[in-house]
Amino acid sequence: MRKPNVCGGYIAPLVVSACLLWLPVAGLAQQQASPSFPPATQLTPIFNAAVSLDVPLRAITSGAGVDALSFGGTKNGLVAGEAAVFFKQVLADDFEFKRMQGMQLASKMRFIAAQFNALLSNDLWKRSAAHANRMAQLLAGELAGIRGVALTQQTQANEVFVTLPPEIIPKLQERWPFHVWNDATSEARLITSFDTVEADVTDFAERVRDAIGAKEKQWI
């Protein structure tokens, strides 16, 4: 289970719980993923979903019936780090050996873990995620008013999906690298983060306007 989903929307806690009801019958554990990399396939962290839903992290993890969580922090400010969180001790009994077998035992692990101490203290995770979500709303608003650009998904967290004229994408990517989600429809996936500032949003929107304007002038 991933929240928000790959299209930037979140899954409400009650829906998560409902989806998980059948898993024990099938003999499966309820695992929730919140990956942080690689960039081309990364999903929005669980932090952004919790802020958007205005609920504590517990509400969309253990409180929704999740047994295990892949807890990524890179998208919310960590240099590097992914924690495996087990809400049922029995599931973690031999995980330390599986971690080594999977070559996931980093040297000096305490330095990686220390980042989570900072992230989860004094609501730093919440402030960072809320800022990223606000920047996404600002970006969506800026792009929605540009002719030739169309929002394709509701902006609920920190991802904005838009279709752009394909001719202007390479030029935009020279300054602001982003992933083209669907080449056939020229749909782009734009992600804001904890360190996105309003000037970044304004600059990108202005470049889109300028690029579209320059393209239109060619036909005058």
Biggest sheet features = 4 strands, antiparallel
Number of domains: 2
Helix/strand order = HEHEEHHHEEHEEH
Number of helices: 7
Mean pLDDT: 80
Folded structure, characterized:
With 220 residues, this protein is α+β, with helices and mostly antiparallel strands. It folds into two domains: 13-121, 3-Layer(aba) Sandwich (Aspartate Aminotransferase, domain 2), CATH 3.40.640; 130-217, Aspartate Aminotransferase, domain 1 (Alpha-Beta Complex), CATH 3.90.1150. The chain is built from seven helices and seven strands. The protein has a four-stranded antiparallel beta sheet with strand order 4-5-7-6. Strand 4 and strand 5 (159-163) form a beta hairpin. Helix 2 (46-53) packs across helix 5 (124-144) and helix 5 (124-144) runs parallel beside helix 7 (198-217). The longest helix is centred in the middle third of the chain and has 21 residues, at 124-144. The protein is elongated, with a radius of gyration of 20 Å. The model is unreliable at 1-6 and 17-44 (pLDDT under 50).
List the topology elements.
Blueprint: H1 13-20, E1 31-34, H2 46-53, E2 68-72, E3 82-86, H3 95-101, H4 109-119, H5 124-144, E4 150-151, E5 159-163, H6 169-175, E6 179-182, E7 187-191, H7 198-217
Parallel strand pairs: 1-2
Antiparallel strand pairs: 2-3, 4-5, 5-7, 6-7
Helix pairs in contact: 2-5, 5-7
Summarize this structure briefly.
The chain is an alpha+beta fold and 220 residues long. Helix content is 37%, strand content 14%.
